[in-house]
């Protein structure tokens, strides 16, 4: 029988620690004070840190990563469509 040593923290707790970190507390202080691992806190900081956009929207790092993936996928689709157009568009004798 295996035991699970991972404690499940709720999202509000994670966001609170990230906020404390962004407001000056060190990761070491937070880990000691709240009993979380350095790796977990580092992951949360990456996941819940925010980026403010020019239009005032605020995105999490996770949302930025998802947008980057989506952008790469769309760029790939666009390239495929350009190649398909080049293949299937008849050339005139004037080219």
Write the layout of secondary structure elements.
Layout: H1 11-22, H2 27-34, H3 38-48, E1 50-52, E2 58-60, H4 61-88
Helix pairs in contact: 1-3
Features:
95 residues, mainly alpha, two-stranded antiparallel sheet, 2 strands, elongated
In short:
The chain has 95 residues and is mostly helical. The chain has helices at 11-22, 27-34, 38-48, 61-88; strands spanning 50-52, 58-60. The chain is built from 4 helices and 2 strands.
What does this structure look like?
The termini are far apart. Helix 1 (11-22) packs across helix 3. The protein is mainly α and 95 residues long. The mean pLDDT is 88. Helices cover 62% and strands 6% of the residues. The chain contains four helices and two strands, in the order αααββα.
């Amino acid at each position: 029988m295996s035991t699970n040593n991972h404690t499940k923290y709720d999202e509000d707790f994670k966001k609170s620690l990230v906020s404390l970190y962004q407001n000056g507390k060190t990761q070491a202080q937070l880990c000691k004070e709240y009993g979380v691992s350095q790796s977990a806190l580092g992951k949360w900081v990456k996941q819940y840190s925010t980026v403010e956009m020019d239009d005032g929207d605020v995105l999490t790092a996770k949302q930025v990563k998802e947008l980057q993936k989506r952008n790469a996928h769309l760029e790939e689709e666009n390239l495929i469509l350009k190649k398909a157009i080049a293949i299937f568009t008849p050339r005139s004798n004037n080219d």
